[in-house]
Specification:
There is one protein chain. By secondary structure, the chain is α/β, with parallel strands linked by helices. The chain folds into three domains: 2-44 and 60-106 and 255-318, FAD/NAD(P)-binding domain; 111-252, FAD/NAD(P)-binding domain; 331-415, no CATH class. 24% of the residues lie in helices and 27% in strands. The strands form nine sheets. The protein has a five-stranded parallel sheet, covered by helices on one side. A five-stranded parallel sheet has the order 11-18-12-13-14. Helix 1 (11-23) packs parallel to helix 7 (300-318). The N and C termini lie far apart (58 Å).
Length: 424
Amino acid sequence: MKKLLILGAGTAGTMVANRLNRLLDRDEWQITIVDQDEKHYYQPGFLFIPFGMYSKNDVVKAKRDFIPSGVEMIMSPIDVIEADHNRVKLADGRHLNYDFLVIATGAQTHPEETTGLQEHEWHKSIYDFYTVEGAVALARQLRTWQGGRLVVNIVENPIKCPVAPLEFIMLADWFFTEQGIRDRVELTLATPLSGAFTKPVASKYLGNILEQKRIKVVPDFVIEHVDPDAKKIVAYDEQEVEYDLLVSVPLNMGSEVIARSELGDELNYVPVDRCTFLSPKYANIFVLGDAAALPTSKAGSVAHFAVDVFSENFLRYIDGLPLLPTFDGHANCFIESGFGKGILIYFNYDVEPLPGKYPLPGVGPFSLLEESEMNHWGKMMFRWMYWNILLKGQELPLPARMSMAGKAAAGQAATGKPAAGQKA
C-alpha cells in the first residue's frame, strides 16, 4: 500500500486530506495527517475580534471534526523531515515512512525577532491581532481606550493575509467613529512597502481611500526596534513614529521543523515550483499553503485554488504522467473597509488587481476595486463557507484559474483608455 503523509492540519492540509481521500483508491493508498494542535482557527476572523464583531468562539473548532474517517490523524509535534530517507521523525521518536509527502505546516508570527516588541509592554500598550490571544487582549483594550495615536506597523513581508493590516486600520476608523471618539484618535499605518496600494491599477482606484478616512501612511518604514518606554518605533534609517497604542504585525516565518530539516529559505518557507508545488530537490515532496515560498498571497483563497489544481495534477503524477503547470497564483481577497462596506481584489502571478465584476462578468454581484455593501457581505459569508465547504474539500462553482472575462485590461484600467490592440 502506498503512503501519503500530510504535515499540518491547518487550512491547506485539511483541504487536501479531504480532497484526496475522495479521489484516491483507498484500497491502494493510506493517508496520514500529522499536527500538534487540537484546535483549528479561522484566522481571517481574528481581524474582527478586537472590534467586538466576533468572539473567540466564532473562530475556533476541533481539527478532528474536519478530518475524514478514512484518514489517520496523529497528534504530535514533528522533530524533523528526513527527506533523503522518505520518512518523518516525530517528537516521541516514532518514524513515519511515506511515498509522497505534502508539507502544509503554515506560517507563524515571531514578535521576539523584533527588539523591544515582546517585552514588558506586550499586551499593555503593544498588541497583535494575528493570534487569537492577541486579538482577544486587544479587544479588551479597545473597549476602554479613550484615544490617542494608534499605529499599525508591518514588520516585514511576506505576511499571512497581506490586506489584513489595511482592513484593521479602516475598521478602526469605523469603530472609533461609532464610539464617538474618532476626533481624538490619530491613525497611522507604517509599512515597509512603498505605499498602502503598490500596484498601479489598485493605487489608481483605491489610492485615496485612506486619505479620505484621515489615515496617515508612512511608507518604506523598515522597523529596526521598538522603544516601549518612549513609545516609539524606530526604522533602520532612524525614522521614528510615536504611538500611544501600537498594533504590530510581527515577522511571519514558516515552521521551525523546516529549518531543522534544512528544506527552507531564511524565513523557513520551502521553495517549490510555482505552478505545480513540487520541490525542485525531491520528486515526491509537495508544499501547499503558507509554508510554500511562492510569489502570491498567503491567504485561504490561494490555498483553496491551489488544492483544486494540485489534486487533479497529483492524480496524473502518480500515474506516471508529467505535472501540468496549472496553478497561476490565483487569489481573490475581500477587504473590509468599515461602515458595512468592503472591497474585492482579484489577481494572479501575472495580472494585477483590475476593475470589473465577479464572479459573473457584467453581473457580479461583487464589484472589483470598488467599495460596496455586497462586498462586505461577501466577506462576512466567507466564514460559513470556510467551515462548511472549503475545509471539507468541497468544490466551488468557481474556476481555479483566473478568468479575464468582464475585467478591464491592465492598460485600459490604468489609463481609462483601451489598451493597445483592444477595442473600446
